[in-house]
Amino acid sequence: MTSDTYSADLNCDMGESYGAFSLGSDELILPFVTSANIACGFHAGDPAVMKKTVKRAIANGVAMGVHPGLPDLQGFGRREMSVSAEEAYDMVVYQIGALAAFVKSEGGVLNHVKPHGALYNMAAVSKELSSAIAEAVYKVDPGLVLYGLSGSELIAAGIRTGLKVANEVFADRTYQENGSLTSRKFADAMVTDEQIAINRVLRMVKEGKVTSQQGTDIKIIADTICIHGDGKHAVLFAEKIYTAFKNEGIVLQSPA
Q1: Are 91 and 71 in contact (CB under 8 A)?
Q2: Is the four-CA dihedral 255, 226, 90, 47 of positive or negative sign?
Q3: Which residue, among 71, 81, 11, has the nearest Cα to 44 in the 3D structure?
Q4: Which of 104, 124, 239, 110 is CA-nearest to residue 178?
Q5: Residue 63: domain span
Q6: How many structural domains is the chain composed of?
Q7: Which of 123, 121, 124, 103 is nearest to 112 (CA)?
Q8: Each residue of 213-241: pLDDT tens digit?
């Protein structure tokens, strides 16, 4: 297989500023990604930021997705909450509706849904929760793509429900041998060396493998790669990984 047969999506979480608080470098990162996951006011974001982010994404030709999170501004949606499947369903429907209105009002098209933070991680291992999220997406718009951790329960739920899915991998996170992400509670959760991160993600795309923290190779599907936009060198890293993919002949395009 030649390198020009590979394709991948670069996605970034965006629109996470709210009120007087400014987070991320959305405007600077947008030229280097193909998909934007836009916060909807639960874990971050607000109506003004949502509208601004939608406009910027459209101007850059970037696919837009809903980034629904738990209602936890103080914890940035990264703290687990005890929510029922019905509550998760309602939260996701609500947040899809909110962003869909802004996208439609600006003449754009909504492409995907990617849960945020703790909701994402909980759905990755819970069949009940993942099924509720997939059902919420399908009932609002069966044409939306569901993003989930590669090989997770959320991906399986999306397939069962009849949605198109995108297996997601992370450029700057480490993996356990069961395919899960290393918890942010641990010091080795993040890959801080940019070149190592780029080499790892290129291998995930081209070989379908990543080395776990236990030293074993695990199989992985890399339809879309998450780039975090709130790091100290986020913009530079986004540009570097974008350039590396171009140099390797990897076609950059959203799953939509």
Answers
A1: yes
A2: negative
A3: 71
A4: 124
A5: 3-252
A6: 1
A7: 103
A8: 999 999 999 999 999 877 777 899 999 99
